[in-house]
Design goal:
D-Maltodextrin-Binding Protein, domain 2; 17 helices
Length: 476
């Protein structure tokens, strides 16, 4: 069952994010692709009570002191050709960094191949079949699992400088209890952006913490003619981000683990926790949380409705932090918060989906005489100095490296303090393309009111059951 590959990554390319940027989503970077959201493939979350004070500008979170790392200069060693296969699609913006890399490894003839995210798997496979030299892999995060489970990359678990990185990045690129790639670039994802000017208009002094809080605020917003939420509902591949955070809560903060169980056949999409997550989006729609005509809005329309104060919240990727800094609007004073709690257990974390930079890996069949160079390149590539280059280039809100402050923007610092370490992986990095597409369609139908959660769940399971019949087997 072949699906056209339309992914969240394609949508976010408009932001101009590059190598070392977080892969956002499929539901998402260039010279590595625009942030993935989520998913490689495809086209392809009630209540309790309480509220938290809307924070003012925050400072960067404290982290265990780790010596800052300058990009090391490699001593003389291997001399000759060294092949880097990259998901970058263009190298113009990173040429100064590439020049510095060449200077750090005298005598090494780097063959940097920007294959692009869309063509990486195809061209990598062709190179393997042809027996071409492959040494180093600069991957979109969503592709790392494929190569880790397929035995294509080396185990990096024994590296001595792992304390250089935020733990969330290491966790993202750990598969089966082993670390297969280093996170390089920015930590970013999708969360609730909001307009503080509209909070002021209705006298709100606290961020809503629960869905009940949000409903109470929504009633006040509607009194002044403002919609609670906007969203680019026409862009079908953006709907799964709602499920990622909702299922994060209804699964008891086990969205990745239980997604694995579901794809392996040990759970079903019709199980209560999956249905409950679909009910969250349905409830948002039934309670009038979305702006009128939400399913006809594209990304520009959704942004305009938010920036022009026609909607108070926007569930959006945080690349907008840098955008707003360089494109201020009189009607918008933007801040952000984690998605509201939609379950009764206050101990459940309000997680959000995100990415943790590009995945830098070493090819498992690299020739022995080039292994030492590859290890030194990995150290150089992931150094604080290199990562800061990517953070500045991509206007990242948070860095993968604990000693690098990617931005001094108050909103970015708030994301660093409250959200970055509470990210969870985009689930469509794991879903088959057909399941991703089914989610997109069923979620759009939930918002339109043409499908109810239990029926949508049944359709999702039907798609997965057909995949089983066609020979699909999830490799956990």
């Amino acid at each position: 069952m072949e699906q056209k590959k339309i992914v969240r990554r394609d949508f976010l390319k408009a932001a101009g994010l590059t190598l070392g940027a977080s892969v956002l989503a499929s539901c998402t970077p260039a010279p590595t692709a625009a942030p993935a959201a989520p998913a490689a493939p495809a086209d392809t979350a009630v209540p309790a009570a309480a509220a938290t004070t809307a924070p003012a500008a925050t400072t960067a979170p404290a982290a265990t002191a780790v010596p800052a790392t300058a990009a090391p200069v490699a001593p003389a060693g291997y001399q000759g050709k060294f092949v880097i296969m990259s998901s970058a699609g263009d190298t113009q913006k990173i040429q100064p960094w590439l020049d510095k890399m060449k200077g750090a490894f005298p005598g090494v003839d780097f063959d940097f191949r920007p294959l692009s995210s869309e063509k990486f798997t195809e061209l990598f496979a062709a190179s393997e079949v042809a027996g071409d030299q492959i040494d180093f892999m600069d991957l979109n995060g969503q592709d790392l699992r494929r190569y880790a489970t397929g035995g294509k990359v080396k185990d990096l678990s024994d590296l001595t400088y792992k304390n250089r990185f935020r733990q969330v990045g290491l966790d993202t690129y750990t598969v089966g209890g082993k670390l297969w790639a280093l996170p390089v670039g920015g930590i970013d994802g999708f969360t609730f952006l909001y307009n503080k000017k509209l909070f002021d208009k209705i006298g709100a002094t606290k961020e809503p913490e629960t869905y009940d809080d949000l409903k109470a605020m929504a009633a006040e917003l509607k009194k002044i003619g403002v919609a609670p939420f906007t969203h680019e509902g026409k862009n079908i591949y953006m709907w799964p981000v709602w499920h990622f955070w909702a299922y994060g809560q209804t699964s008891g903060n086990k969205s990745v683990e239980n997604t694995f169980k579901t794809l392996a056949g040990d759970m079903k999409f019709t199980d209560p926790e999956h249905v409950a997550a679909l009910e969250v989006l349905y409830k948002f729609a039934q309670d009038g949380m979305f702006i009128d005509g939400v399913n006809s809005l594209d990304s520009d329309g959704a942004w305009l409705s938010f920036a022009q104060a026609k909607a108070a919240f926007y569930h959006c990727h945080v690349w907008r932090i840098g955008f707003v800094k360089t494109n201020p609007v009189d009607t918008l004073d933007m801040s952000l918060m984690a998605p509201v709690r939609v379950v009764s257990d206050a101990a459940i974390k309000r997680q959000m989906p995100g990415g943790t930079g590009s995945a830098e890996a070493i090819y498992s069949k690299i020739a022995p005489e080039r292994v030492d160079t590859a290890m030194k390149l990995l150290d150089w590539w992931s150094s604080d100095e290199s990562v800061k280059f990517f953070n500045d280039l991509n206007a990242s809100p948070v860095s993968t490296n604990v000693n690098v402050q990617a931005s001094d923007n108050p909103v970015a610092l708030k994301y660093a303090k409250e959200c970055a370490d509470n990210q969870t992986t985009y689930l469509d990095w794991f879903w088959p393309p057909e399941v991703t597409r089914a989610f997109q369609e069923q979620q759009q139908a939930l918002v339109a009111g043409s499908k109810k959660p239990d029926a949508a769940a049944a359709e999702l399971q039907k798609v997965l059951d057909q995949l089983y019949k066609d020979g699909y087997k999830f490799q956990a």
